[in-house]
Amino acid sequence: MGAVARCRLVRSAVVVSVVAVGLLGCSDATTIVDSTESSATSAPVTVGEGAGQNDTTPPGQQPEGFSTVTARITESDGEICDVCVWLADTPDERARGLMGVTDLGDAVGMVFRFEEPIAGSFYMFQTPAPLSIAWFDPDHVGSADMAPCLDTPAGDCPLYSPGAAYDLALEVFEGGLDELGVGPGSRLELIDGTEAEVCPLATNL
Q1: Which of 88, 92, 155, 202 has a 20 to 30 A CA-CA distance from 193?
Q2: pLDDT at residue 24 is higher than 80
Q3: Radius of gyration for the alpha carbons in the chain, expressed in angstroms and rounded
């Protein structure tokens, strides 16, 4: 019951965050910069046709063209919580990430999955919502809060990195990691066979 109760609290917190972010102005994008290639929240730093342009995005913009998957978070005390997240696991998806997104829908965030460990950095080019990110290998290797970078050329946006290799990165609206029990000692894994077009856990949260 503990894990289920935590998941319900997380869902409520995300709804509040979505409403708050929906009141903000919008513009397109987020990004990852791989150590060997660019990639955003993920978009490669090369992402960017139209880099430097500041197109507006309607309030309530959700991720488009992504599937969802169930992520299992194991907290440092062993408590487990399964949540639904958007999945970015191709170069194009990782390059687009949460660019322009102000509404996560039924998901609590987006997970970036890499085929092998990397030591790249993320940036927030044209990403309107402040985000928190955690990196895993699958153990937690670092976290950071990331501020929008809307009116600055992509190459001048701050870079965020855990300073260690990782193969999973979880992005949520700023402040959401604590609600998910993510921090030192936690772990993240994606559950095989749970990929879907919409959140399969939405009715249970």
Answers
A1: 92
A2: no
A3: 15
